Structure formats: C-alpha cells, structure tokens
C-alpha cells in the first residue's frame, strides 16, 4: 500500500520539527517574516481587516483584542472543498480532533489540549452544546461545511463573556448570506453524494437567505475488522433573515433543522443498529445601534436534540435534550477610547432518556467588561457572576491587552478564567435493575461542582490571515481543576463513593480531576502575488494529568497528540483560471486512553485539489484525499477513510 509518509517517517519529520521550532527558532522565524513583509513590494491593495465577535460578543477587528483569535472566511472554506468541516478546522492552530468511524460518527474537537466538551460552539448565535450527552459536547460529525461562510475561533478560557463551557475556547460558525442563487453537487468515494442549494437577496429593508443540504454515503465500517459498511444520511434546512426597522433598530431571525440516520456497530461487529438524530435550533433577536455610542442585542434561542436507536443492541434507547435561552448584551461608549461591555442571560435546560425522568436546570448570569481602545493600545478586563440552581454562585475574571510595537506588529497577552457546569446527565442520570425492576442511581451525583480553569498566554502577531504576510507566535498554559471524572465504586474508589452517598451500583461522577496544558503555536501565511498563497500552522501542546495520587498522574491526556502541523498551498494558474491546491496534515502519536498503554500512531496525510471555472458562474472541481492511502486512526478501533476521490460542480447566479 502506497503512502505519502509512513507513521515512522512522520515521526522523524515531527522530531526534526520540534528541534527547529524551539522557542528561539519560533521567534527568529517570526522576525524573518516581519522583515520580509517590510521589504517586499505591495502586490495588491490590502483587504479590509478581519472582523470577529468571539472576543466580546460584538463586532470588532481581530487585532483589537489581546486574545488569540483566528478567522477563516468563505473563499478559504470553498477552496478546501467538501462537506467535512474538520478539514477546514485543521488549519487553525492548537486544534486536533478524533472521530468514531466515518461520516456522522461522534467528532470531538480539542483546542489546546482541552476536552472536546470544553469548547463552546455557536451557530448563528445559538449554543450547540448537547444537553442529552453525558458531558454536553458538540458533535462536529453532524455539522456540514456546505452552508458555512465564516469560522471564528478564540483559543483560551473566556467565560467572562461566554459563561459555561468556554474553557478551551469559543468557536462561532456563521451561515452564508446570499445575494442570488447558489448550488453545488459532489460525488465520490464510498458512493458519497453531497448537494447544497441556497437563495437569498434584499428587498428594501429586508434581507434573507434560505438553504438546504443533503448528504448520503455508503461509507465504511465504523469498527475495524467489520467488512460491512455503516452508511450515513443527513438532510438539512436553514434560513436567516433581517429587517431594518429604522432609527437604529433591526429584527433578525434564524433557524436550522437537521435530520440524520447513521448505521452503528453495537457491542459486536455483526450488529445492525441505527442511530437517528434530529436537532433543531433557532434564534429571534432585536438589535439597536446609536451611531457607535450604544449597541444593544437581545434575543431568545432554543436548541433541541433527540437521538434514538433501533437494532439488536441498542433497541429502545433514546436521549432528549433542550436548552432555552434569553440574553441581553450591550456596548456603551463612555468616551472616545473607553467602552463598557455588559450583559445578562438566563437559560433553562432539560434532559431525559429511557431510564431517567425529565430533569431540569436553570442558570442565570451577568457580566461587565471595561475596554480601552486606541490606534495602538487595546486593553480589556471584566467580571462575571453565574447563579446555578445546582451548585450556587460562581465568579469569573479575565483581562487581556495588546500594543502595536511597529506598524503591523503587535504584542498581546491575556489571562482568562473558565468554568463548565455539570451536565444534567452527570447530576441526575438513573438506571433500572433489569433483574429486580428497582430504580437505582446509575451515575448521577447531585453534589458536583463546576469544572474551572485559569489560562495564560503571550504572543506576537503580524497582519492577518487575509493579508499579504501573516505570522503569529503564542506561548500558553492552562490549569484546570475540579474536572469531572467517572469512577467505579470498587475498593479503589470507595472513599469517593462514600463521600458522595447514593446507591452506586456501578459508579458515579466526581470532581477529582486536575490537568495542565502548555505549549506554543506558530502560524504563518505568505501571498507573494495575488495568484499564489502558502500557509502553515504548527502546535506543540503538552496536556497531562496532575491529579495527586492518581495512578496516571503525569501521563498525557487521551487523544491529545503533542505535535500537529498543517501545510497548504494554492495557485491560480494562467491556464483558464485553473486553481490548484495541496494540503499536508502531520500529527504525532498519542495515548488512546489514560487507562491503558494503547497508543495511536502518528500519521501524515495529503490532499490534492483542483478547480476550473467553466463560465463566470459555473465551476468544476475535484480532489483526492489521503493521497497515499495511509492507514491511521484518531480513536482506537475506529476506521478512517483510505484514498478517496471526489468531483463536483458549483454554480452561482
């Protein structure tokens, strides 16, 4: 079997990379890029600065924050091609993922070594944390890239503005707003078809877009060793609209519904189980803008998800979760360089499954952040207070700042605190003893406290991702305590179970975990001429268990490779506008679980891309993923795709 790089070769590549990217080399490379930018002639006019909302909740230039923020826009997403959003997210520093099988399999994103469930994800302002999951995470396997036009990622704890779950970072996905009609169709490996269609426009004070997506794949077996493919199907409807009411007022609304069907392997490779998932979300908002003096945003949102199973192993199993949220946020300019960012919100969550009666939770909060902004200096600091009906009150603090050292070159630093509330499953999950019919506490622990973190970072940055030259280097550390861990109530954990009384037939969740993640990130991009662009990002993240007395104290956390590298290049040739691109992803080895010595091997996989305009409105494209047909796993025992080719067509009118 041919390969781009074998895992052993990839290991040599990464060892060399570690040596070359020691801190001194990182900053000397950074300085060289800055010098290149200063000396090179300007090939084209600079584009407008990248705008983000993840720093404060309000739009601002990326370089106006002291935090590490990356933004990927529509043109880059389109150039990468395909429905798998993880191929886009791999271009962000500090990001790795693991997936349980093929399309639709649970896909967890880990930012700077945090748990997948410690990343807050929003789609058009709606929080996508799943109240029906044990740890409340977001499954990126059910988020397709077809209708996404912007991705923002803030790396580091930022619960002052965003509250629970923002320990590893905050990711905001924005669906596209169209003027006209767009459609695409793609077919390729594993009998996979993906199609999208959307239409949008503006009529007076109203603007809106409606979109739909469909994906069907015969796929491959979820579990290694099973020859039977586990197929996946999803269809999606989404819409958004805005009405300008005048006098600075506007109404907005968005909604999304996705229905998925996925074959799964149960307790054996011969199982024939099916998972059905339906998730719906929507938000209604009102905004006010007073010529830059006062900005107000208020809204109400709902996220509802339902999963059920059919088949030999999981028949009758179901999970239902819902979160309803109300929020008000504002930005008040007190004087030309000083603004107060404030907000209040409240959410109500509920969860039930086939063994647990409906359980609910309420959490309300308020926050305030004072910001000082000039052309060269940006400072911000704030506080948040949350009140939860399960664990009471919790305070959070954060501060960040940036200063322009020379034109285009900024130094930045930040301190952020984060927390994550216990999920309803962790608090209340129940079960039924099939032999006696009696109800017992399966794992829920009503005495849980929130997980908390403190993160520190400092870095240098030049330009942004859309500029002619962009480079950044960041050092960071995050300490997390009170991590919620599942423990078995046997002799090794008798003290923990005794301290949390209950009928623990199997085990329970407890606040016993402690971890640290530290490392550095390096990102660079060069566009010597408008038709040619190169990008690179490298991350070193050491995330390990610091739980005193734990058998695995000092061991790396599960599925957190220390090294991750992404290289990409894009060239629009003089030949009829033919666009060629290539990507290389290199990831080092990691432990699959803290509780065993089983390791996931490092790997290196490459992708080749091409796109050819047929007319000004129609484009043909194609790509080959995993060119070398490398066999690798991101979760032990779960298959990944081999060499895969796809062709497609896009049209826009």
Question: What brief labels describe this structure?
Answer:
7 helices, 35 strands, disordered N terminus, mainly beta, five-stranded mixed beta sheet
Explain this structure to me?
The chain has 653 residues and is mostly beta strands. It contains seven helices and 35 strands. A hairpin with a 7-residue loop joins β16 and β17 (318-335). The longest helix has 17 residues, at 23-39.
Topology diagram in text:
Elements: H1 7-20, H2 23-39, E1 51-52, E2 60-61, E3 68-73, H3 74-80, H4 86-89, E4 95-99, E5 107-111, E6 119-123, E7 126-127, E8 148-155, H5 159-162, E9 169-175, E10 180-188, E11 192-203, E12 206-217, E13 232-246, E14 249-264, E15 273-290, E16 294-310, E17 318-335, E18 338-353, E19 359-373, E20 377-388, E21 392-406, E22 409-420, H6 424-428, E23 430-432, E24 439-441, E25 451-462, E26 469-488, H7 494-499, E27 507-529, E28 532-545, E29 563-572, E30 579-587, E31 590-591, E32 599-600, E33 603-613, E34 618-625, E35 644-652
Parallel strand pairs: 6-9
Antiparallel strand pairs: 1-2, 3-8, 4-5, 6-7, 8-9, 10-11, 10-35, 11-12, 12-13, 13-14, 14-15, 15-16, 16-17, 17-18, 18-19, 19-20, 20-21, 21-22, 22-25, 23-24, 25-26, 26-27, 27-28, 28-29, 29-30, 30-33, 31-32, 33-34, 34-35
């Amino acid at each position: 079997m041919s390969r781009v790089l074998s895992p052993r070769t990839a290991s040599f590549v990464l060892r060399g990379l570690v040596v070359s990217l020691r801190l001194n080399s990182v900053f000397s490379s950074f300085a060289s890029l800055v010098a290149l930018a200063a000396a090179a002639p300007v090939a084209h006019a600079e584009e407008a600065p990248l705008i983000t909302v993840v720093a404060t909740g309000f739009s601002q230039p990326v370089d106006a924050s002291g935090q590490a923020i990356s933004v990927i826009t529509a043109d880059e997403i389109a150039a990468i091609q395909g429905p798998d959003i993880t191929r886009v997210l791999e271009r962000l520093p500090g990001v790795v993922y693991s997936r349980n099988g093929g399309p639709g399999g649970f896909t967890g994103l880990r930012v700077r070594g945090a748990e997948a469930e410690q990343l807050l994800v929003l789609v058009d302002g709606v929080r996508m944390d799943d109240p029906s999951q044990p740890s409340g995470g977001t499954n990126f396997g059910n988020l397709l890239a077809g209708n996404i036009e912007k991705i923002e990622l803030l790396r580091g704890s930022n619960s002052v503005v965003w509250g629970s779950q923002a320990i590893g970072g905050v990711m905001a996905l924005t669906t596209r707003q169209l003027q006209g009609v767009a459609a695409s169709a793609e077919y390729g490996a594993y009998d996979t078809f993906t199609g999208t269609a959307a239409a949008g426009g503006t009529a007076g004070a109203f603007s809106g877009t409606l979109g739909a997506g469909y994906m069907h794949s015969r796929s491959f077996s979820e579990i290694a060793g099973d020859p039977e493919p586990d197929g996946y199907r999803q269809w999606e409807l989404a819409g958004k609209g805005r009405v300008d009411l005048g006098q600075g007022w506007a109404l907005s609304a968005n909604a999304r519904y996705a229905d998925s069907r996925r074959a799964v392997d149960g307790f054996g490779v011969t199982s024939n189980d099916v998972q059905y998932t339906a998730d719906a979300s929507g938000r209604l908002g009102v905004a006010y803008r007073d010529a830059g003096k006062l900005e107000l945003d208020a809204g109400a949102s709902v996220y509802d998800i339902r999963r059920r199973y059919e088949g030999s192993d999981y028949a009758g199993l179901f999970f239902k979760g819902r979160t309803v949220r109300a929020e008000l946020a504002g930005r008040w300019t007190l004087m030309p360089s000083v603004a107060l960012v404030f907000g209040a919100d409240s959410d109500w969550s509920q969860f039930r499954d086939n063994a647990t009666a409906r359980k609910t939770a309420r959490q309300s909060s308020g926050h305030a952040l004072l910001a000082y902004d000039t052309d060269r200096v940006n400072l911000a600091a704030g506080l948040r207070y949350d009140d939860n009906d399960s664990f009471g009150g919790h305070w959070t603090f954060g501060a960040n700042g940036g200063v322009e050292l020379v034109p285009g070159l900024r130094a930045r630093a930040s301190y952020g605190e984060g927390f994550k509330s216990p999920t309803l499953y962790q608090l209340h999950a129940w079960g039924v003893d099939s032999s006696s019919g009696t109800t017992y506490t399966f794992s829920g622990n009503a005495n849980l406290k929130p997980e908390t973190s403190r993160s520190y970072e400092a870095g240098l940055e030049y330009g942004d991702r859309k500029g002619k030259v962009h480079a950044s280097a960041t050092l960071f550390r995050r300490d997390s305590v009170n991590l919620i861990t599942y423990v078995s109530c046997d002799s090794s954990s008798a003290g923990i179970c005794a301290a949390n009384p209950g009928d623990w037939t199997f085990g329970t969740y407890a606040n016993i975990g402690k971890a640290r993640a530290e490392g550095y990130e390096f990102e660079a991009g060069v566009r010597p001429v408008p038709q040619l662009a190169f990008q690179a990002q490298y991350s070193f993240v050491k995330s390990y268990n610091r739980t005193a007395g734990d058998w695995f104290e000092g061991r790396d956390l599960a599925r957190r490779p220390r090294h991750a590298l992404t290289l990409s290049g894009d060239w629009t040739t003089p030949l009829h506008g033919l666009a060629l691109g290539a990507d290389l992803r290199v990831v080092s080895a990691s432990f699959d679980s803290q509780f065993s010595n089983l390791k996931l091997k490092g790997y290196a996989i490459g992708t080749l891309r091409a796109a050819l305009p047929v007319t000004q409105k129609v484009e043909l494209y194609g790509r080959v993923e995993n060119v070398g047909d490398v066999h690798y796993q991101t979760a032990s025992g779960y298959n990944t795709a081999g060499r895969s080719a796809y062709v497609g067509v896009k049209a826009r009118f």
